[in-house]
Amino acid sequence: MTEDAFTVMAHAALKIGIRIPEAQPVRRLYEQQYLCDYLLKWGINCVFDVGANNGKYAHHLRMMGYEGYIFSFEPIQKDYLELSRLSQEDARWKTFNFALGNEHSRKPFNIIEQSGTVFSSFLEPKFQAKKNVEMIEVKRLDSIFPELVSGIENPRVFLKTDTQGYDIEVVQGIGNRIDDIIGLQAELSVTPIYEESPHYTKSLMYFESLGFSLMNLFVVNRGKHGSILEYDCLMTRLERFIA
Q: Is 18 part of a structural domain of the chain?
């Protein structure tokens, strides 16, 4: 079938009311496919998984065939225990029970008891939720970066950060080692659900100021009437790392 014939058929289907359902499993499969191809294209052999939660992101990387190193950071003890269980037989998957940020400190952290702990954050939620506040350890990534990549031949690093409004601070903590980061995946808040959460345009402008180019956007979730609440952005430092 030619492209023109397909377009005619597609428009005819739309005209009579046929719609393709926006099924979440199908959308997630496309996102996973894109990420898998991205890691292969850029030769990524080292993933920093910041805000690892219970390890699903890293586990999915393994299921997709990624065989490089993974360094997962998760401060919540309950989630960290599950993360450790998943990674315990994987020699190239290391886990750390602290948070990353733009300073070395101990800070109050809101553990939200809603839908697991996926909404837990340093920031105050705008929604009503049961929460516990714990003091957790925070480190800068640049202080541990040399130790993490030691022994990895030609490390090509991809940073994934999902910290519920704290991603800019995580990236700030990379300091001068930003030159070693090839790719970035971060969550952008379009409709903020936390107090003082940076607007998505501010986050994008900051990442772009560091030399990252936007490669793709994926909808994380929508509001009641279809508005975008959050995006995942995928970015690359094209000028520095293009072959």
A: no
d(CA 98, CA 106): 10
Tell me the residue range of the domain where 234 lies.
24-241
Residue 11 lies in a domain: no
pLDDT of residue 156: 95
pLDDT, tens digit, 9 for 90 and up, residues 71-91 = 999 999 999 999 999 999 999
Cα 164 versus chain centre, distance:
10
DSSP secondary structure letters along the chain: --HHHHHHHHHHHHHTT------HHHHHHHHHHHHHHHHHHTT--EEEEES-TTSHHHHHHHHTT--SEEEEE---HHHHHHHHHHHTT-TTEEEESSEE-SSSEEEEEEEE-STTTTT-BSSPBSS---EEEEEEEEE-HHHHHHHHHTT-SS--EEEEE--SS-HHHHHHTTGGGGGGEEEEEEEEESS--BTTPPPHHHHHHHHHHTT-EEEEEEEEEE-TTS-EEEEEEEEE-HHHH--
CATH of residue 78: 3.40.50.150
Residue 29 belongs to a domain: yes
Question: Does the structure show a pLDDT above 70 at 92?
Answer: yes
Q: Is residue 155 part of a domain?
A: yes
Contacts of 18 (CB under 8 A, 6+ apart): none
Please report, rounded to a whole number, the percentage of residues in the chain having pLDDT higher than 90: 67
pLDDT of residue 161: 97
Number of domains in the chain: 1
**Rounded to two decimals, what is the model's pTM?**
0.90
